[in-house]
Amino acid sequence: MPELPEVESLAGFLRERAVGRTVLGVDVVAFSALKTFDPPVTALGGLTITGVARHGKFLDLDCDGLHLVIHLARAGWLRWREDLSGAKPVRPGKGPLAARVRLAPDDEGLAPGFELTEAGTQKRLAIYVTKNPDDVPGVAALGPDPLDDAFTVAALKAILGGSRTQVKGLLRDQKVIAGIGNAYSDEVLHAAKMSPFKIAATLTDDQIADLHEAIVTTLREAMERAHGLAAKDLKAEKKSGLRVHNRAGQPCDVCGDTIREVSFADSSLQYCPTCQTGGKPLADRRLSRLLK
């Protein structure tokens, strides 16, 4: 799933290539992806892209005051095309293509644009056309951005205070903190040397400060690695920079212990026992319930 660093990098990529260009049209292939009908998607035709922003894991293209807001969900991606002039017309079907955004030709006659794709059978990619991004329910419900100056240690302490939620689940909750998903929550907790099952309300002031440092540092380092990369290279860069996520069975780069995996909510998490849980493997609670 694209998370804050990748979405911010995609926003930067589009700022360089799409801002200032006129939208020729938006062709929606997966009609279930389009979540709004007024204004219609055809209203974007003829408008100029004046800015690109990020709200959590949402991309926001400002087109002369009308916003094209995109959420790539778990398996979505943005694929830039230098020239769409010869592309075949889009047709609804079972392929990965969800939508195509066509831009006006440049001075060399190339008509660039981008395609939104989504792998797998669970289609959750979402497209909104709105006059105000805050009218998108997911954007309106977002918690604070962890890279905002207002996200201080004191702000994190207020978020954690009294919560009986496991810290892994809290980090993934977009209504609590915006932009962190399954991968970077694993990375943050490894950097903070903290068990993913630790209850948020039990954290000491020192642990909260360590967690805050891990959140900000992990995300900023990921953004620095991705800075300037083409959209097509961001997935590989994310994978190469992960220390524990999706590395079960491999040695920890910090201590050499074997990285473990357990089920968590609707997915799984990876962690290092030596770095995070005092050397003790976590019980796979989903498996334990099945065995009862």
Task: Describe the 3D structure.
This is Fpg/Nei family DNA glycosylase. Residues 2-93 form the Formamidopyrimidine-DNA glycosylase catalytic domain. InterPro entries: FPG_cat (IPR012319), H2TH_FPG (IPR015886), Znf_DNA_glyclase/AP_lyase (IPR000214), Znf_FPG/IleRS (IPR010663). It comes from Nonomuraea guangzhouensis. Keywords: Metal-binding, Zinc, Zinc-finger. The protein is 28% helix and 20% strand. Strand 3 (58-63) and strand 4 form a beta hairpin. It has helices at residues 4-17, 137-140, 153-160, 167-172, 182-191, 205-226, 234-241, 273-276, 285-291, and strands at 23-28, 49-55, 58-63, 66-71, 76-81, 97-103, 113-118, 126-130, 260-264, 267-271. The strands form 3 sheets. It has a 4-stranded antiparallel β-sheet with strand order 1-6-7-5, with no helix packed on it. A 4-stranded antiparallel β-sheet has the order 2-3-4-8, covered by helices on one side. Helix 1 (4-17) runs parallel beside helix 6 (205-226), helix 3 (153-160) packs across helix 6 (205-226) and helix 5 (182-191) packs across helix 6 (205-226). The chain has 2 domains: 4-140, MutM-like, N-terminal (N-terminal domain of MutM-like DNA repair proteins), CATH 3.20.190.10; 153-287, Helicase, Ruva Protein, domain 3 (Orthogonal Bundle). It is an alpha+beta fold and 292 residues long. The longest helix is centred in the C-terminal third of the chain and has 22 residues, at 205-226. The chain is elongated.
CATH topology name of the largest domain, in short, is: N-terminal domain of MutM-like DNA repair proteins
State the helicity in percent bands: 25-40%
- List segments where confidence is low: pLDDT < 50 over at least 5 consecutive residues: 287-292
In CATH, the architecture of the largest domain is Alpha-Beta Barrel
Assembly annotation? single chain
What do the pLDDT scores average to?
A: 93
Order of helices and strands: HEEEEEEEEHHHHHHEEHH
Largest pleated sheet: 4 strands, antiparallel
User: How many strand elements?
Assistant: 10
Q: State Rg.
A: 21 Å
What is the general shape? Answer: elongated
Q: How much strand? A: 15-25%
In spatial order, strands of the major sheet run 1-6-7-5
Number of domain units: 2
- Tally the helices: 9
**Helix/strand/pairing category:** alpha+beta
The CATH H-level homologous superfamily of the largest domain: MutM-like, N-terminal
